[in-house]
Write a structure and sequence with these properties.
The chain is mainly β and 402 residues long. It has one helix and 36 strands. The chain has one helix at 2-26, and strands at residues 28-35, 42-49, 52-60, 68-75, 79-85, 88-97, 103-111, 114-119, 128-133, 138-143, 148-154, 159-165, 168-173, 176-183, 189-194, 200-206, 209-214, 219-224, 230-234, 241-245, 250-254, 260-265, 271-276, 281-286, 290-295, 300-305, 311-315, 320-326, 329-334, 338-342, 348-352, 357-362, 366-371, 375-380, 386-391, 399-401. The strands form nine sheets. The chain has a four-stranded mixed beta sheet. The protein has a four-stranded antiparallel beta sheet with strand order 3-2-5-6, with no helix packed on it. The protein has a four-stranded antiparallel beta sheet with strand order 11-10-9-36, with no helix packed on it. The protein is globular and about 70 Å long.
C-alpha cells in the first residue's frame, strides 16, 4: 500500500511538473514601452522577470507617428508581480496570472523622465480592433481611439478567423471544427459553436450571420447567430477569396484559376449566377451596382457593372493580391504597396508604401493595415493620412472591429 501511495504521489508530481512546463511554453508576456508626455530617449539595458534576465541594450525614442514600441516577448511560468528594469524593481498594479489568460501585455510607460509599469486593461477599452496571430496562439487588441496596442488574449488552439458581433468575439481555429465565443469586454471564453468541416480559415459577419470559410477553403458555412441554424456551400476546388456584398444580399467567390465570379444567396447559400471575366481572378468585392475584381495574370483591376454588363480595367505595375471597396475607393493590395483607386474612374488616388500586407480592417473613421513584417498602420479614412504606426509580435491572419 505504501509503495502504491508513493507511485501515485510521484505520478501526480510529474503531472504537475509537466503542466507547469506546458504553461511555461504556452504563456507569453509581451513587453511594450509607451511614451506619454515625453520626447526623451530611454535606454533599456536589461529586463528581469521571475529570475529571467533579457538583455535589451536598445535606445527608444518617440517619433511623430509612433509612441509605443514592442520591446520583447518572454515565455513566463507562474505569476508575475514585479519587473526589474535596468536593475531597478517596479511593482505591478496587479499580479499577472497566466492561468486566466496565457497571453498578456506589460507596459513600461514614460511620463516626462519617470518610468512606471502597467498591466493590460481591456475593460477600459470601448472601441476595439482585434486580430489573430496564429503562430503565437494569440489574439491582439488595439484601442481604436488611440491606435495603440491595449493587450492580448491567449488561445489553446491556433486562431485564424475572427469577427465581432454584439459585444461578442467569434474566433475560428486552424483544423479545429469549432467557433469559440469570447466576451468583447474582457476576452473571457463564454461558449463554443460546433461547425462542419476541418476548421476555419476566415470569418465574415453580416446581418447576424457568420460566414465561415473552412481551413481547406472548400466549404463556406453560414451560421445564423439568432437561430443557431447552419447551411453550407461546398466548392469543387479551393476558393481564393469571398466577399459578403450586403448591398445585393449575395456572397461573391473566386478561385484564382479562372475568371468565374460566382454569386450565392446570403440567406441560404443557393447559387444565383456567375459573372465570367477573362483572366485569373484572385480577389473580389462589390456594391449595389458593380463588382470589383483583381486579376493576377494581366495585373489589372476590373470594374464590372451589374447594370450594363460591361467592364472597365486599370493596369497595375505590380501583381494585385486582394481588393476591397470602402468610402468610394477601391483598395488594392500588391506585394509592395497599398493603392487606393477612385471607384468611378479607376484612377489611382493614393499610394501607401507598405510591403507584405496581410490584412485590412475598415472601421468607418479609420483603416487598420497589418503587415507580415511586425508592423501595423492606422490611416484616417477621410484624409488618408497615416496617423499612427505600431509594433505587433507576429504575422496577422485576420482582423475585425466593433
Amino acid at each position: 500500500m505504501k509503495l502504491e501511495k508513493i507511485i501515485k504521489t510521484v505520478s501526480f508530481t510529474i503531472l504537475i511538473l509537466l503542466y507547469e512546463s506546458f504553461i511555461s511554453i504556452a504563456s507569453s508576456l509581451f513587453i511594450y514601452i509607451q511614451f506619454l508626455k515625453s520626447n526623451n530617449a530611454v535606454s533599456l539595458k536589461t529586463i528581469n522577470i521571475n529570475n529571467q534576465t533579457i538583455t535589451i541594450n536598445k535606445i527608444y525614442k518617440p517619433v511623430e507617428k509612433q509612441k509605443q514600441f514592442l520591446v520583447t516577448r518572454i515565455n513566463v511560468s507562474g505569476r508575475v508581480s514585479s519587473i526589474n528594469i535596468n536593475g531597478k524593481k517596479y511593482i505591478l498594479p496587479k499580479t499577472i496570472n497566466f492561468r486566466e489568460n496565457p497571453s498578456q501585455a506589460l507596459f513600461i510607460k514614460v511620463n516626462k523622465k519617470k518610468l512606471y509599469v502597467e498591466n493590460q486593461q481591456l475593460l477600459n477599452i470601448n472601441r476595439k480592433v482585434v486580430f489573430t496571430i496564429p503562430p503565437l496562439n494569440t489574439i491582439g487588441v488595439i484601442d481604436k481611439d488611440t491606435g495603440l496596442i491595449a493587450g492580448f488574449i491567449g488561445t489553446q488552439n491556433t486562431p485564424t478567423g475572427i469577427s465581432i458581433n454584439n459585444n461578442k468575439i467569434f474566433v475560428g481555429y486552424q483544423n479545429i471544427p469549432v467557433i469559440s465565443v469570447l466576451s468583447l469586454e474582457n476576452g473571457f471564453h463564454t461558449s463554443d459553436i460546433p461547425i462542419s468541416g476541418d476548421g476555419t480559415y476566415r470569418i465574415e459577419i453580416s446581418k447576424n450571420k457568420l460566414f465561415i470559410l473552412s481551413s481547406n477553403k472548400k466549404r463556406l458555412t453560414i451560421y445564423d447567430i439568432n437561430s443557431g441554424t447552419t447551411s453550407s456551400i461546398i466548392f469543387p476546388r479551393k476558393i481564393s477569396d469571398f466577399f459578403i456584398n450586403y448591398a445585393t444580399g449575395t456572397i461573391l467567390t473566386v478561385n484564382s484559376d479562372t475568371g468565374n465570379i460566382n454569386m450565392f444567396s446570403m440567406t441560404n447559400g443557393n447559387h444565383i449566377g456567375t459573372v465570367i471575366i477573362p483572366g485569373n481572378i484572385v480577389s473580389v468585392c462589390g456594391d449595389e451596382k458593380n463588382i470589383y475584381a483583381a486579376d493576377d495574370f494581366t495585373k489589372t483591376i476590373i470594374k464590372y457593372s451589374l447594370i450594363s454588363r460591361t467592364s472597365d480595367t486599370e493596369e497595375l505595375m505590380d501583381t494585385p493580391l486582394k481588393i476591397r471597396n470602402f468610402n468610394n475607393l477601391i483598395f488594392t493590395i500588391t506585394y509592395s504597396n497599398l493603392i487606393a483607386f477612385d471607384m468611378f474612374s479607376l484612377n489611382p488616388y493614393a499610394t501607401f508604401n507598405i510591403k507584405n500586407i496581410s490584412e485590412l480592417v475598415f472601421t468607418g473613421d479609420k483603416i487598420f493595415v497589418f503587415s507580415k513584417s511586425g508592423k501595423y498602420f492606422v490611416i484616417d479614412s477621410s484624409s488618408l493620412y497615416t496617423e499612427t504606426k505600431g509594433d505587433i509580435p507576429g504575422a496577422v491572419m485576420e482582423g475585425a472591429s466593433n
